[in-house]
Amino acid sequence: MRGKNFSIGLRALAIFAVTLLVTSTWAATNWNEKVRLNFNGSDGASPQAGLISDAAGNLYGTTSYGGEYNAGMVFELTPTMGGGWTEQVLHTFGNGTDGVNPIAGLIFDAAGNLYGTTDAGGAYNHGTVFELTPTGGGWTEQVLHSFNNNGTDGVWLFAGLTFDAAGNLYGTTQGGGTYGYGTLFELTPTAGGGWMETVLVNFNGTDGAYPSAGLIFDTVGNLYGTTYFGGTYGYGTVFQLTPTVGGGWAEEVLHSFNGTDGARPDLADLIFDAAGNLYGTTSGGGNYSNCTYGCGTVFELTPTAGGGWTEQVLYSFSNNGTDGAYPGAGLIFDAAGNLYGTTSEGGAYNDAGTVFELTRTAGGGWTEQVLYSFSNNGTDGANPSAGVIFDAAGNLYGTTPGGGTYGYGTVFELTPIYPCAKCSHSVLREVHGFPAENRDALEQRR
């Protein structure tokens, strides 16, 4: 177990794990998809969460089901010299007390330990926070906290975790707490090697209800997140927690969604740009009504001089569905300021989902481009519920909970195709600044 003295390196590693920013001289006009892993049930099934990467380019994730007990697992994908990937199951959930059904993704600490949550299981079957520590050739799991049997500290963990600079963990539960609308909690490492849980917020409905997404910090230590329901109009909220002098936290609702500007932000963590603006998605709402509850939006929240925040809808997914529908996952930036995300439905094949890009236009608006539509036969994956991440070469990676060879979901890669006759692999290496010592490996990957 690591000590309490975490450095800024931990925050940098966490940011690295969420997204790698890349830049390119050329604009890609098409993307080629390859399935890198077809889950077969025994090695995992139905990955709901996205991936993270370590510095060596290995990918890590969770599956909600699969394994001997069909209770989910944690896996690692390692790139091979021949261009493929090798999967290793790091932990299989199964005895109940170690957790059941991990829905959320993972984070690293600076020492290379992995942390995550399970929706159920634990001592009281209300979910857990767990740690995986690399040992000699394997990984050892430890439950840091089991949510209690009366639900007062929270139940139903759909969201992942985040660290502060001191090594404390923060997360949300979709249910439980004083009012039954969910909680926001902190886990603090103790001197004896354990962890102490503190409930920081009991959501009461007016400030939001049923938070499904994780949390992020700004540079001064404020926390930000979303709730799926609740708020002024019942369509969900964006909230902020500010640490107070006495050691507590003050909560403020930054925005209540009204339906037309979005509804029900789902599993999507918020992200900041360099100017301090917040970006996220809502799984419903927007300007188009043919979807049952609206097709969803991408939004931006901008802090104002008076201390409030102004919301702007950057994109409403349309009612014909070809541009995607129901974006439940979070977004990432590239170095040029373009946004990337997924939709769980819509696209060229109506209900299989998409990967999309939003590009800022000269007039201040945003243009959407579908980078990939998952096919109607499902062999390439179906209905992504998580976002995507970049590698250092500008490729995108993600998961789908359905589809693939066995129907249990996939890990996929999207590779940009550049629109010029001279765009050879050597040009791609120059464009993305791929290290010279790794160029042969990249060539084999292509």
Question: If you had to describe this structure to a student in words, what would you say it looks like?
Answer:
- It is a single chain.
- With 446 residues, the protein is mostly beta strands.
- The protein has a single domain (8-445), classed as Integrin alpha, N-terminal (Methylamine Dehydrogenase, Chain H), CATH 2.130.10.130.
- The chain has 3 helices and 28 strands.
- The strands form 7 sheets. It has a 4-stranded antiparallel beta sheet, with no helix packed on it. Strands 2-3-4-5 form a 4-stranded antiparallel beta sheet. A 4-stranded antiparallel beta sheet has the order 6-7-8-9.
- The longest helix is centred in the N-terminal third of the chain and has 11 residues, at 8-18.
- The chain is globular.
- Mean pLDDT is 87; it is low at 1-26 and 420-446.
Question: Which key terms come to mind for this protein?
Answer:
single chain, 446 residues, mainly beta, Methylamine Dehydrogenase, Chain H, four-stranded antiparallel β-sheet, 28 strands, disordered N terminus, disordered C terminus
Straight-line N-to-C gap: 39 Å
Per CATH, the superfamily is Integrin alpha, N-terminal
Quickly name the level 1 CATH class: Mainly Beta
Instruction: Give the rounded overall mean pLDDT.
Output: 87
Give the neighbour order of strands across the main sheet: 1-28-27-26
Q: Ranges with pLDDT <50 over ≥5 residues?
A: 1-26, 420-446
Percent helix, as a range, is: under 10%
CATH architecture label: 7 Propeller
